[in-house]
Amino acid sequence: MTNDMNSSQAGDPSRVEAWQMFDRIAGRYDFLNRLLSLRQDVRWRKKVLLHLLEKSDQMVLDVATGTGDVLLTLFSGNPKLKRGIGLDMAREMLKSGRQKIHRLSLDKKLLLIPGDSLWLPFSSQSFDVITIAFGIRNLIDIKQGLTEMFRVLKPGGRLLILEFSLPRNKLFRKIYLFYFRKILPWLGGVISGDRYAYRYLNQTVESFPYGKAFNQIMEAAGFQEVIDFPLSFGITSIYRGDRIG
Questions:
Q1: Which terminus, N or C, of the chain has the lesser number of Cβ atoms within 10 Å?
Q2: Secondary structure E strands in 41-96
């Protein structure tokens, strides 16, 4: 497990082309998320709701939004949210997300747009809450991505990151890694028709710093009161950090 994000991720070809990979599997992406996580991904996103701010009329930005599941979860469970924007490079994923938004009649509240997470196309201090789920590890330069999120977050605003981590219990971790390295890539590859996509998943998760190591990266980007909340025995974690001033 490396803590040197620049050396381990900057220029990594797998991450440079990640959005193209997600476009290839867009049609099966939601189905595979539910199947491979045994629907725990739905539960994990609902946990993010517990960390939202208490104020009303909040503007939300979801970075690396994919098919928009985070925004759909947040806006179906919190009346204090005013409007949400989702941003992603993968246009086929966005297309799928827009269809879901339309089916739920949330077109007036939610907007999905193409864009680069490293250069957010928004004015400084535009959002009350920023979320990113299972996307931070895919950024070519995580420090740059966090710096941009800090820039567009209002003072008093909050960043919520949902990301895979590794179980801390040694026995459970051993069992989980067998599933993660052997069964998940094979099953995901068979169903999606893209074996690379699900080999990529376990490789990026295992090379990603988590827990205190990632907290320190968030703090270096300017976030304060940073804390992590492990879920499902540490399979995933929610990272919360605030922009105080």
A1: C
A2: 58-63, 81-88
Where in the sequence is the domain holding 51, given as residue range(s)?
Answer: 5-168+209-242
**Dihedral of the alpha carbons of 242, 53, 67, 72, in degrees to the nearest 10:** 180
Q: How far apart are CA 57 and CA 51, in angstroms?
A: 16
Helical (H) or strand (E) element with 216: helix 212-220
pLDDT per residue rounded down to tens, the chain (245 residues): 333 333 334 334 355 566 567 677 667 777 777 887 888 999 999 999 999 999 999 999 999 999 999 999 999 878 999 999 999 999 999 999 999 999 999 999 999 999 999 999 999 999 999 999 999 998 989 999 999 999 999 999 999 999 999 998 889 989 988 988 888 888 877 877 776 766 767 777 888 999 999 999 999 999 999 999 999 999 999 999 999 97
Q: Is 21 a domain residue?
A: yes
User: Reduced to 3 DSSP states, what percent helix, strand and coil does the chain have, rounded to the nearest 5?
Assistant: 50, 20, 30
**One-letter identity of residue 168:** R
Does residue 161 form part of some domain? yes
In a domain, 176, yes or no: no
Residues in CB range of 79: below 8 A, 6 or more apart = none
Whether 190 is in a domain gets the answer: no
* 3-state SS, residue 48: helix
**DSSP one-letter code for 179:** I
Number of folded domains that form the chain: 1
Residue with tokens 């009303």: 56
Q: Say which CATH number the domain at 217 has.
A: 3.40.50.150
CB 109 within 8 A of CB 136: no
Q: How many CB atoms lie within 10 A of CB 107?
A: 11
